[in-house]
Specification:
The complex is a heterodimer.
Chain A: H1 8-13, E1 37-43, H2 47-50, H3 54-65, E2 69-75, H4 79-88, E3 106-110, H5 117-127, E4 142-146, E5 162-164, H6 172-184, H7 189-196, E6 202-203, E7 208-212, E8 218-223, E9 232-233, E10 261-264, E11 266-267, H8 278-281, E12 286-287, H9 290-304, E13 308-312, H10 322-336, E14 339-341, H11 349-358, E15 366-371, H12 375-380, H13 387-399, E16 404-411, H14 418-438, E17 450-457, H15 474-489, E18 497-501, H16 504-514, H17 520-529, H18 543-552, H19 557-560, E19 576-577, H20 582-593
Parallel strand pairs in A: 1-2, 1-3, 3-4, 4-5, 9-19, 10-13, 13-14, 15-16, 16-17, 17-18
Antiparallel strand pairs in A: 5-6, 7-8, 11-12
Chain B: E1 2-9, H1 18-31, E2 48-50, E3 58-68, H2 78-84, E4 90-98, H3 105-108, E5 109-118, H4 123-136, E6 141-146, E7 149-154, H5 155-158, E8 159-165, E9 168-174, H6 183-191, E10 203-214, E11 217-220, E12 226-227
Parallel strand pairs in B: 3-10
Antiparallel strand pairs in B: 1-3, 1-4, 2-3, 4-12, 5-9, 5-10, 6-7, 8-9, 10-11
The chains are: A alpha/beta, B alpha+beta.
């Protein structure tokens, strides 16, 4: 039996000790004396959040399929344990072996959202690893970042030795082999990093120099050595049906936030929504074959005994064999008493039929994401959903017995006017009207229509058409939320409409980090040192401390958020090549300002550039 | 057909609480392909009940749950299949057939026995003396704070057997739904006279058996049942 890094006294005093003991089913134990490379994979948030993430399960399974490598896991300790570890000088440990993180060869950190940046520092701090990559020696692991936020790694570049740009299934073997070779040849840490920078998709921040213009924008971004590539190319899996898939996922004892099996059906998205970063990052569109998915579903169920399975992709309705897949799952899962949790499908007769079959009708509500209140603004953001689509879908749903509708909108989109905001209330009202027109009084069974409108604040993200867009200030955001509420209150059916809105402060910070540059790392470090941590959690978010950190670092929030960006500005992330070209994004930015809609990939190729990978489903 | 499964729980998994252990076992049953019966209705669940919740921090040599299966086909492999789906520290020991009319596991429990290993070696002498005194006493009072005030109880009525050996404490006590005695309450009764306060992390607490009452005797929950071959 394994011995634990924490003693009984600590484990009995803290919340959810199960987060820290490992030993879950399908977790992997190896004999460390047989192992050449020890990798610890980190999701810098609580265990329950991190265990819900598919990406780590993929890499964990893949690494552990290598005989010479042992991959373990670590998550952010909760605040209760954090305090105890500091007081008693207990180093952060990996769950499987319970060995200190500092003893590992690699510490991989997945970057799923910007608001986890201070938690990265907590991980390093508790592990006893210097924050700054330049201060590390071979006594420390190689700290490597990956995931969506690594597409603008600059705000946290100082804290990482390497970033892996792209899908992890492709280049890690090469990196591990290089590591083994360089370590046995006594190569210096700097030497290894230099070699690593030559592997496609690997970005070594310390090997690039940035110079700035007087106004603070970037003047140049150059490699330090001649052989270091000027651009880093995103790596992708060419054949999804032939890549590693974790059919033996680690099964947490305590309920994870997303406590279900995940079947990833495709990567990429044909819809070119101009605000959406994932839609560009994961291009070109690649599907897993139906046969492969059937096989994976069977194995997943057999290997876990889980009671729920869900499909994962950016837009499941666009999967070409969705109907066949769902019919197979319904069949398979009914016999085995497994729930199918459906992703947000486009609402039509087929999806409603499927939902009727697999879900408890009484509980479920329907979700639409119009994102903007008016057709004009929906054209600006290239969201192909029209009011007719929504009302027709709602009508079908009401006829099928549904009476709850959820709507998602964004406030602060480029070119937004008061009229667009008023459109949110009007659309909600139309949906209520559709309900009353569709379902006669005697058929309502005392039920009422319930519309929930939620707004978040638009945050411009790198590698989107809106990377040039200005963001609004907190007070603008508050005003917009207020106007939305007034607009809803003004409608006839306001009593059937509930309105939720997002926090403004967090959105502003997320906006800074999303398009930030290397100068931001000093702010993050100072904020962490003054007590900022778990910024994604309301109860631990301290905006005042952040504002103070910006002030003390002489850093302006507005430079990153509200400032107008010229078409030819060099962005901090321009050195990354995701396949989608900057010229295409700029064209789309101008199309947006001209309220011009672009057709989706299936209708007509827009020449975004992702065709260069040669594997896109709809690429010419 | 109803089955009674006896299992043990040791090691780090003692920090997994009762409900999470139950959720884990449900998944293991499903993954093992045991033809378990499901309830009817919108959200069917396995017909499964645990005899006696095991608190966080406690290990056990002998725990029980009952399940209902729709078929006994392949039953000789049930134990092996289940064990293949278990995690570190959980092991299925035996599976028994439960007669149709038998009381369910939870309703049957009347007593439980425990073993306590103290981390502080110096306690051995005091323990021996305290147990001796307890055995000789007519009444050992225990006080429990409840919503309606402080409740007094005579531990002598709740503890059926008690002895110490090599610094370890062994005892059997009331575990019925109305009168379950918490091991910590007995420790308080034993050590308070010596001014010693023990925390849950000062000792290893292991449940050694769970009992039902048969003809006024306490017998293990699996007593008299036919083992599934």
């Amino acid at each position: 039996m394994r011995s634990l890094a924490l003693n009984d006294e600590i484990l009995l005093k803290i919340d959810k000790p199960a987060r820290y003991i490992g030993g879950e089913k399908n977790s992997v134990m190896k004999d460390k004396t047989d192992i050449a490379v020890r990798f610890v994979m980190c999701f810098p948030d609580l265990y329950e959040i991190g265990m819900s993430h598919l990406g780590i399960q993929i890499l964990y399974g893949m690494f552990n399929s290598y005989e010479d490598t042992w991959c373990e896991r670590v998550y952010s300790p909760g605040m209760d344990l954090d305090a105890i570890m500091r007081e008693k000088h207990i180093p952060l440990f990996a769950l499987e072996s319970q060995d200190p993180v500092k003893d590992f060869d690699f510490l991989g950190i997945t970057l799923q959202y910007e608001m986890c940046y201070t938690n990265i520092l907590q991980i390093l701090d508790l592990s006893g690893i210097p924050f700054s990559a330049s201060e590390r020696t071979w006594e420390d692991p190689i700290v490597i970042g990956g995931g969506p936020c690594s597409y603008n790694p600059e705000p946290i570049a100082e804290f990482f030795d390497l970033f892996y740009i792209g899908e992890g299934e492709t280049r890690y073997r090469e990196l591990l082999d290089l590591y083994k070779k360089d370590r046995s040849n006594g190569v210096s840490r700097e030497g290894f990093l230099h070699h690593a920078s030559l592997i496609p998709g690997i970005y070594v921040p310390s090997l690039y120099n940035v110079s700035y213009n007087e106004d603070g924008t970037i003047a140049s971004f150059d490699p330090v050595y001649e052989d270091v590539p000027r651009t880093v190319k995103k790596q992708i899996v060419e054949d999804l049906s032939d890549s590693f898939y974790p059919t033996k996922p680690v099964l947490p004892f305590i309920k994870a936030t997303q406590d279900r099996l995940v079947l990833e059906i495709m990567r990429g998205c044909i819809r070119g929504c101009r605000f959406c970063q994932a839609g560009q990052l994961y291009r070109p569109i690649r599907e897993r074959s139906l046969e492969t998915l059937k096989q994976y579903a069977k194995e997943l169920i057999a290997n876990t005994g889980h009671e729920e399975i869900c499909l994962s992709s950016l837009s499941s309705s666009d999967y070409t064999e969705l109907e066949e897949l769902l019919l197979f799952l319904i069949d398979e899962c009914e016999a085995k008493k497994i729930n199918i949790s459906l992703p947000s499908l486009r609402i039509d007769q087929f999806s409603l039929d499927v939902m009727n079959k697999v879900q408890d009708v009484k509980k479920s509500s329907l979700t639409f994401a119009p994102e903007a209140g008016s057709q004009r603004l929906r054209n600006v953001i290239n969201k192909g959903l029209t009011e007719e689509d929504i009302l027709a879908g709602a009508k079908l749903a009401f006829e099928g017995g549904w009476n709850k509708v959820k709507l998602y909108f964004m406030l602060g989109l480029p070119t937004e006017t008061e009229e667009d905001i008023r459109g949110i209330g009007l659309l909600c009202n139309e949906i209520c009207k559709t309900y009353f027109d569709t379902v006669p009084k005697e058929k309502r069974n005392g039920q009422k229509i319930q519309v929930t409108a939620s707004t978040s604040f638009f945050i411009p993200k790198p590698f989107t058409a809106f990377q040039w867009a200005s963001m609004y200030t907190e007070s603008d955001f508050r005003e917009k939320a207020y106007q939305t509420r007034l607009g809803i209150m003004d409608t006839l059916n306001q009593r059937s409409i509930k309105y939720n809105w997002h926090d403004t402060d967090v959105s502003v910070l997320e906006g800074v980090f999303a398009r930030g540059d290397r100068k931001i790392s000093a702010v993050i470090k100072l904020a962490y040192e003054s007590g900022c941590i778990f910024d994604a959690w309301n109860e631990t978010f301290h905006y005042d401390l952040w504002l103070k950190a910006f002030e003390e670092c002489n850093s302006s929030i507005e430079f990153y958020t509200t400032r107008k960006r010229e078409d030819d500005e060099i962005f901090p992330w321009d050195f990354i090549d995701i396949g989608v070209s900057k010229a295409f994004l700029l064209r789309e930015w101008h199309n947006a300002l001209n309220e011009k809609v672009s057709p989706n990939c299936r209708m007509q190729c827009q020449g975004c550039g992702a065709a260069s990978y040669g594997v896109g489903l709809y690429c010419p | 057909m109803k089955l009674r499964v006896r299992f043990s729980k040791f090691g780090p998994i003692k920090f997994i609480g009762h409900l999470d252990t139950m959720r884990f076992v449900q998944k293991a049953i499903k993954a093992a392909g045991i033809p378990v019966k499901y309830t009817e209705g919108f959200s069917p669940h396995q017909v499964l009940s645990f005899a006696f919740p095991l608190g966080v921090g406690m290990e056990s040599e002998s725990e029980y749950f009952d399940i209902e299966v729709v078929s006994m086909e392949g039953s000789e492999a049930f134990k092996e299949s289940l064990n293949r789906e278990m995690c570190e520290g959980l092991a299925v020991l035996d599976i028994y057939e439960l007669p149709k009319k038998a009381k369910g596991a939870m309703a049957s429990v009347s007593a439980a026995s425990y073993r306590i290993r103290f981390h502080e070696e110096g306690l051995a002498g005091i323990l021996e003396e305290a147990v001796c005194k307890f055995q000789g006493a007519k009444e050992v009072k225990s006080y429990k704070e409840t919503k309606t005030g402080i409740k007094e109880r005579n531990l002598k009525d709740a503890v059926y057997q008690i002895e110490s050996e090599d610094g370890e404490l062994f005892f059997m006590c009331d575990a019925s739904s109305g009168g379950n005695l918490k091991p910590s309450a007995l420790l308080e009764g034993l050590f308070t006279p010596y001014g010693i306060v023990l925390n849950a992390w000062d000792y290893d607490l292991i449940r050694t058996e769970v009992y039902k009452t048969e003809e006024e005797n306490y017998v293990p929950l699996c007593e008299g049942l036919k083992r599934v071959q």
